[in-house]
From TrEMBL:
Gene Ontology biological process: polysaccharide biosynthetic process; UDP-glucuronate biosynthetic process
Catalytic activity: UDP-alpha-D-glucose + 2 NAD(+) + H2O = UDP-alpha-D-glucuronate + 2 NADH + 3 H(+)
Segments crossing the lipid bilayer: none
Enzyme Commission number(s) from the entry: 1.1.1.22
Classification via InterPro entries: 6-PGluconate_DH-like_C_sf (IPR008927), NAD(P)-bd_dom_sf (IPR036291), UDP-Glc/GDP-Man (IPR017476), UDP-Glc/GDP-Man_DH_C (IPR014027), UDP-Glc/GDP-Man_DH_C_sf (IPR036220), UDP-Glc/GDP-Man_DH_dimer (IPR014026), UDP-Glc/GDP-Man_DH_N (IPR001732), UDPglc_DH_bac (IPR028357)
Main EC class the enzyme belongs to: oxidoreductase
Segments forming domain UDP-glucose/GDP-mannose dehydrogenase C-terminal: 322-424
Protein's name according to its UniProt entry: UDP-glucose 6-dehydrogenase
Keyword NAD: yes
Active-site residues annotated for this sequence: 268 (nucleophile)
Length: 453
């Protein structure tokens, strides 16, 4: 089988490479010549564990190629499906901007030679596949051609940092189709990924489009709900870590996505929650739960900063804060909507000095933070003379640091744990003041000279 994937961003590149991995001939297309040239040399525009080796292996086998020429590929590749995986950036009003998706659809319409399934893979509002179909049909009409095609909607559920595994072993694959023929093409394409017995679910196109938003909105709701519960736990003297374990063992609730923290970020949740609220309001309906989900998330991004202010009695000017982790979550360099940005801006506004370290996201972080922040060469360097450590992203290497070294490097032994990865009582026994999310704060149990020995 042959397919083309338009857009070599996160979703497009993972999709194309994973299809190649199971033996399908894939051409990945992008208008950005530099990106394509780099990909041909094995240089990737994003960081995703395992992807670079997979791109290289499949390119060498000749199953994965890269091109800037959409027309040429669609005209000559004999593709059974073309996946549209270009960006849908949020417009000023929060709705997804479809200009790239529809431009690609028109381009496909101008180049189509034979029956093809045109699949939207980008996260697009309900009703987009219909617009894609119309755009292609208009171009075909302008050409005076009668070529059969179908549109389909195939939303993506990849998590950054685990995208390859998610694609190769999906919980489910959702495909919206409107013809038997399209269903057959999509079935054949996805057959190799169904080995673990998880379902390929066919449905109508609007339902498939809605599924993506409903999934992300539900997950965002779980997180905001737990953040709300965590804040109340603190007030009432309960421990949210216990509450989480207590409720998570109920299979109806589940133990995933109930970790409180500093708010969700990334390229999906914030954008999709806003977009769904917008779609609803445009159609005369108010998504009240989601409005609250978003408000709680905005508030949660300030929770760690508020704890810093409270601990230092508002006196932050001239103090130094070490920040561990910048990306919106571990195993990615993605800084989109990262809570770290909000926390760091607040610290800087208060006149503090920030020394940050992230295993992979520092180059990305520089785009928005520039030289206003100092960047450590490792997590320990970022701690030198710090008045406090803020754990912002729970990278595995931050989980068990040598606290005796940590304590010696810092000016004051204070930890603000935005992800509840440390044991507060254990840190207190080592002489640290500890602040977590939804848990009791801990005062140092020993004086700082004996504590870290
Ligand atoms: C998400 C969805 O999981 C994925 O299915 C969809 O395709 C795209 O959006 P991603 O944005 O890569 O994936 O990250 P995810 O691991 O879902 O985390 C999203 C945010 O929620 C992160 O900021 C993370 O820190 C936060 N989170 C997650 C919590 O605060 N608590 C949790 O319990 C889980």
């Amino acid at each position: 089988m042959r397919i083309a994937v338009v857009g070599t961003g996160y979703v497009g590149l993972v999709t194309g490479t994973c299809f190649a991995e199971v033996g399908i001939d894939v051409t990945c297309i992008d208008i950005d010549e530099r990106k394509i040239e780099n990909l041909r040399q094995g240089i990737l525009p994003i960081y995703e564990p395992g992807l670079e080796e997979m791109v290289e292996r499949n390119a060498q086998k000749g199953r994965l190629s890269f091109s800037t020429d959409l027309s040429e590929v669609v005209e000559s590749c004999g593709c059974e499906a073309v996946f549209i995986a270009v960006g849908t950036p949020p417009g000023e009003d929060g709705s997804a901007d479809l200009k790239y998706v529809l431009a690609v659809a028109r381009h496909i319409g101008r180049s189509l030679k034979g029956y093809t399934v045109v699949v939207t893979k980008s996260t697009v509002p309900v009703g987009t596949a219909r617009k894609v179909r119309q755009a292609i049909a208009e171009e075909l009409e302008a050409r005076g051609e009668q070529i059969d095609f179908d549109v389909a909607s195939n939303p993506e559920f990849l998590k950054e940092g685990a995208a390859i595994d998610d694609f190769l072993k999906p919980d489910r694959i959702v495909v919206g189709v409107e013809s038997e023929r399209a269903e057959q093409v999509m079935s054949r394409l996805y057959k190799p990924f169904l080995m673990n017995g998880h379902p390929l679910i066919f449905m109508d196109i609007p339902s498939a489009e809605m599924t993506k938003y409903a999934a992300n909105a539900m997950l965002a709701t779980k997180i905001s709900f737990m953040n709300d519960v965590a804040n109340l736990c603190e007030i009432m003297g309960a421990d949210v870590n216990m509450v989480r374990r207590g409720i998570g063992s109920d299979a109806r609730i589940g133990n995933k996505f109930i970790y409180p923290g500093i708010g969700y970020g990334g390229s999906c949740f914030p954008k999709d929650v806003k977009a769904l609220i917008k779609t609803a309001s445009e159609n005369g309906y108010a998504m009240q739960v989601l409005q609250a989900v978003e408000q709680v998330n905005e508030r949660q991004k300030s929770v760690l900063f508020d704890k810093v202010v409270a601990h230092f009695n508002g006196d932050l000017a001239g103090r130094t804060f070490a920040v561990w982790g910048l990306s919106f979550k571990p195993k990615t360099d993605d800084m989109r909507e990262a809570p770290s940005l909000v926390i760091i801006e607040r610290l800087l506004e208060a006149g503090a000095r920030v020394k940050a370290y992230d295993p992979v996201a520092m180059a990305e972080a520089r785009h928005s933070l520039g030289d206003r922040v100092e960047y450590g060469k490792d997590e320990y360097e970022a701690l030198i003379d710090a008045d406090a450590l803020l754990l912002v992203t729970e990278w595995p290497e931050f989980r068990s640091p040598n606290f005796s070294v940590v304590g010696k490097l810092m000016k004051e032994k204070v930890v603000f744990d935005g992800r509840n990865i440390y044991d507060g009582a254990e840190l207190a026994a080592k002489g640290f003041a500890y602040h977590g999310i939804g848990v009791a704060q801990q005062v140092p149990q020993l004086d700082s000279t004996s504590a870290t020995e």
